[in-house]
Amino acid sequence: MKMPRHRRHSNTIRDVAALAGVSISTVSKALSGGGRMRPETRDKVREAANTLGFRPNSLAQSLHQNRSRTIGILSTDRFGRFSFPIVEAMEEVLANEGIGIFMCNATDDPEREKQHISQLLAKRVDGIVVTARRADRRPGIELIGRDIPVIYVFSQSENNNALSLLPDDEGGAVLATEHLLSLGRRRIAHITGPEGFEAVRLRHRGYVRALQQARMPQPPELYLSGAWSETWGREAAQKLLDLAEPPDAIFCGNDQIARGAIDCMREAGVSVPHDIAVVGYDNWEVMAEACRPRLTSIDMNLMELGREAGRALLQLMSGGKLSGVRRLPCSLVIRHSSGPVKH
Amino acid sequence: MKMPRHRRHSNTIRDVAALAGVSISTVSKALSGGGRMRPETRDKVREAANTLGFRPNSLAQSLHQNRSRTIGILSTDRFGRFSFPIVEAMEEVLANEGIGIFMCNATDDPEREKQHISQLLAKRVDGIVVTARRADRRPGIELIGRDIPVIYVFSQSENNNALSLLPDDEGGAVLATEHLLSLGRRRIAHITGPEGFEAVRLRHRGYVRALQQARMPQPPELYLSGAWSETWGREAAQKLLDLAEPPDAIFCGNDQIARGAIDCMREAGVSVPHDIAVVGYDNWEVMAEACRPRLTSIDMNLMELGREAGRALLQLMSGGKLSGVRRLPCSLVIRHSSGPVKH
DNA sequence: CTGAAAGCGCTAACAA
DNA sequence: TTGTTAGCGCTTTCAG
To answer: For residue A157, what pLDDT band results from cuts at 50, 70 and 90?
Structure first.
């Protein structure tokens, strides 16, 4: 038997074979569990493998099988509050299938992004997931010559036959608005973020749609677009309070705005939810729980989005075909800021 | 020339060789840039490689070189607010060296953790980083028979000859307290989280040390330990206000507590920073900026911690030896809640 | 200066 | 039932 050139750092199948006194291929078959063989041989091999702490080298396996059981996740924007639950849930689904995840971050740097993609391809990943903090469209990624599945999560490709998974922003806004309507509220305002965000436009559309269906008027002075901040929430709430006829409910584009609005009202002596009910968006626990009263909010179910992304990728990797934009439902988490039915 | 058995998904060195009309080994040498060869041959090869979009298969390279240029990062607790900047910075450092990062999450599930480690070993990672949300001690991980570098970041192994990288909590607390002292504050309170956390104990120690050095008394009623929440911050601040002799400054164990305290005081008509100055901990932007007045806070420099972790791992991977607990300095970010010098 | 051949660790087809 | 052999894609001697 020849000696290996490199010092090896872990036991190979050859060592197991030697210890068990069988051939390499027998070891392979024994451990893979397949094929027919004498049980005692199998046991002997298993025992040898165990005492050596043998783990097959997946690099070698991958090389042979032409699949690495590995995927890459590429964040266009830095990994943030929204990406985390998604990534975490996806990781769980894929890890259960023995698939490893390469994490790449290319914060708004196309050059870095290219490098990362190139690395991922060199590492022969079986799939790529693209995420962004903001759910706006971005150019599809370039897979120079290779044909592996790519999906966009919380992010959308300009290339329409790719699969995108997103939260249903419009639906979430409908949920929030209908909730307020069902409580008997009639003048519902909407304070939201910058109109540059597709999410802002979609949520606004949902809000409008719900009001229309309920045949409610939508006075333009009740719609306020600004920044994604508490400061803007306070400012906008003040504007609403200064109106000749203030609203009796506010649907906010995110939880920070909602918190600002609630703070403003409490300080102005306006009771939430009695005088004005408030619903936020994101269901960001630390924010929602810190509001006084605790904030009713729309949850985008990011974990579910992540799990779904994991499943979709698995399907694509095993040859399935999926494409188009899928929007997953949000849900309403009721706390105290939307309060009981108004009399 | 024999045909490959499997359908290949990307071009191999063999294809490049065929196109360039040279041997495989020539291609290898030409692309690696080493060795002596006729420049025109090298160019010919490069061109062929380019037109085919050839990327060497790193699985094969790794197999040969016995190193995968890949590491694993294992989060004991879920990836959260603290892990993110660390991971992001580390990723940047390592990605620049062409090293890929496998992300594994094993939220407080030892079984999952074992599986992940086993997978990482099978993937022949060149190193492992262990992180946790809380900087408390944990058992070292088991590398059944393999000898690869492991470091603990924002987390500490019970095994003392491993390397741990942590923020200097005690130093951060000293920084905060001395800042308040330098502003002329004399009765400095400390509201903090549960004493179960090592960070709480260390920050308390730093606070005490700074007071002792300044020969300030430390009345026990000025130390309040509770939850990591705004609610606790408000509650504790109220207790302090109710004291016969309230403090003229509060050092808070995190920014949420600080925010609660500030809110409480504003509502009680106590001026921050005029009557009572406040310093927080974590420098969590969204929190610190949303406080009124904006919150002075201690920054743990998590990005720097992550970069340092990346560098340390690179050293270990190239044979260096590092061990023990290293604590990296925090810094003070001054905003308005600590205000100007008191007269 | 270039090519042939061996081998990294593993699997799978084929022989014995 | 078990062993022999070829080959995954690449690098690296060693000959030519």
So the answer is: confident
Tokens of A136: 């706006």
| Closest nt by CA–C1' to A23 | D3
Q: What's the pLDDT tens digit per position in B24-78?
A: 989 998 998 877 788 888 988 999 999 998 999 999 999 999 999 999 999 987 7
Residue B118 lies inside a defined structural domain of this protein? yes
What whole-number distance in Å separates Cα of residue A134 and Cα of residue B248?
43
* CATH, residue B42: 1.10.260.40
Indicate if A80 and A157 belong to the same structural domain. yes
Residue from the list B53, B116, B231 with its beta carbon closest to the beta carbon of A144 = B53
Q: Is residue A193 part of a domain?
A: yes
Does A130 share its domain with A192? no
DSSP B142: P
CA distances to A222, A278, B163 from A262, rounded to whole Å, are 16, 8, 47
Q: Is there a single domain that holds both residue B286 and residue B312?
A: no
More confident residue, B221 or A109: B221
Which bases along strand D come within 7 Å of a protein CB atom? 1-13
What's the CA B54/C1' D12 distance, rounded, in angstroms? Answer: 21
Give the model's pLDDT for residue B341: 58
CB within 8 Å: A57 and B95: no
Inter-chain residue contact A57 with B122, CB threshold 8 Å: yes
CB distance A11–B145 less than 8 Å? yes
Total domain count, chain A: 3
pLDDT at B37: 84
Give the domain CATH number at A264. Answer: 3.40.50.2300
Q: Considering all nucleic acid strands, name the nucleotide whose C1' atom is nearest to the C-alpha of residue A10.
A: C9
CA torsion sign for B260, B264, B267, B273 is negative
Q: Say how far apart CA A312 and CA A58 lie, in whole Å.
A: 24
Instruction: Write out the residue range of the structural domain in which residue A39 sits.
Output: 1-55
Residue A32 in this model has a pLDDT that exceeds 90: no
Which residues are in reach of strand D, CB within 7 A?
A 22-26, 29, 35-38, 41-42, 60, 63-64, 66; B 2, 4-6, 8, 12-14, 24-25, 28-29, 31-32, 54, 56-57, 60-61, 63-65
- The reply to whether A222 falls in a domain is yes
**Residue B312 lies inside a defined structural domain of this protein:** yes
Is B163 in contact with B316 (CB distance < 8 Å)? Answer: yes
Other beta carbons within 10 angstroms of residue A30's beta carbon come to 25
* Same-domain status, A193 and A276: yes
The shortest CB-CB distance from B123 to any of A100, A230, A290 is to A100
Question: Are A95 and A39 part of one and the same domain?
Answer: no
Whether B6 shows a pLDDT value over 80: the answer reads no
